[in-house]
Amino acid sequence: MSVDVVLDGIVLGESVRWHGGRVWFADWVAGEVVEVVDGKPRVAARVEGLPFCFDWLPDGRMVSTNGPHQRLLAIAPDGEQTTHADLTGAVAPHAWNDIAVDPRGHVFVNNIGYDFPGGEPAPGLIAVITPAGEVRRVAGDLLFPNGMAVSPDGGTLVVAESHGERLTAFDITTEGNLTDRRVWAELPGDAPDGLCFDAEGAIWYASVPGRHCRRVLEGGEIAQTVTFDRGAFDCVLSPDGVLHTVTADFSDPEAMFRGARTGRLTATKVG
User: Fold this and answer.
1) Which of 191, 105, 102 is nearest to 145 (CA)?
2) Pairing of the two strands 222-227 and 231-237
3) Residues 171, 176, 179, 185: what is their CA dihedral angle, to the nearest 10 degrees?
4) Are 72 and 83 in contact (CB under 8 A)?
5) Helix (H), strand (E) at residue 257
6) For residues 239, 243, 244 and 247, what is the CA-based torsion angle, rounded to 10 degrees?
7) Pairing between strand 231-237 and 242-248?
């Protein structure tokens, strides 16, 4: 299986998305939201502080977490930023991480629950920002909640628990609450990070220590694996069956955060 390098020289790619017929990703250390146009990067927005992840509301506006500043940003096409929701002290004092938006416009954001990487590990949570602007906690006791995705029918939210070695699912109610918590897949020995659904309802997830992306069926059966020469942070599947993955050498995190550009965006035809 051929892994083709689309872009090289990224610092730390995350939050890979497919939108408007193109691949987008966040380069955390560089503080950039990048759109890939004809195989070339275009900086669509700049966000101060990390972590930050982004998605789109049903009306087409981009929203991004702004972790250290406890805000959810709305980002216009020209890059102008406004505060979509103030998360300061709302439900958690720590930095916000990944984001996923459902078809009704509920914005789900997660919080790992402690000061990473130096703090004492503690359970994390998921909060929702409703279309009316209400902010509330909707799930807790998650072991390093990381990548999240909403199912194609809009009815299920799945979150990767990186320290729990599993994917956990919830039903999404019309009010944006999360119910019927269940284990979607146990992944013993692996640490799932970013993830996405495919058209058949399976999930592709990335693993930094595993240096791979895996397609897993509900219940835990591994159906396909794509391996890399460096850690895999996030992935998204395009409609034509190409898996786009951001990878980087994570063997020396301090060098990475000083700007070592070992990151890549790759493309792999998986069907």
Assistant:
1) 191
2) unpaired
3) 40
4) yes
5) helix 253-257
6) 160
7) antiparallel
Over the range 60-93, which residues count as b (16 or more CB within 10 Å of their CB) and which as e? eebbbbbbebbbbbbbeeeeebeebbebeebbbe
pLDDT tens-digit map of 122-144: 999 999 999 999 999 999 999 99
The fraction of the chain above a pLDDT of 90, given in percent, is: 80
How confident is the model over 53-105, as pLDDT tens digits?
999 999 999 999 987 788 899 998 888 899 999 888 667 788 899 999 999 99
Strands 156-161 and 166-172 turn out to be antiparallel
Q: Are 23 and 38 in contact (CB under 8 A)?
A: no
Return the exposure string of 10-38: e unless at least 16 CB atoms fall within 10 Å of the residue's CB, then b: bbbbbbbbeeeeebbbbbbbbbbbbbbee
Share of residues in the chain with pLDDT > 70 (%) = 98
Interatomic CA distance for residues 205 and 264, integer angstroms:
17
Give yes or no for a contact between 195 and 204, defined as CB atoms under 8 angstroms apart: yes
Residue 178 reports pLDDT greater than 70? yes
What's the CA gap between 97 and 55, in Å, rounded?
12
25: which 2 tokens? 């990703």
Query: What does the block give as tokens for 160?
Result: 């990767």
Residue 34 vs residues 23, 146, 217, 264: alpha-carbon distances, Å: 9, 20, 30, 13
Distances (CA, A) of 123 to 58, 129, 172, 191: 31, 20, 21, 16
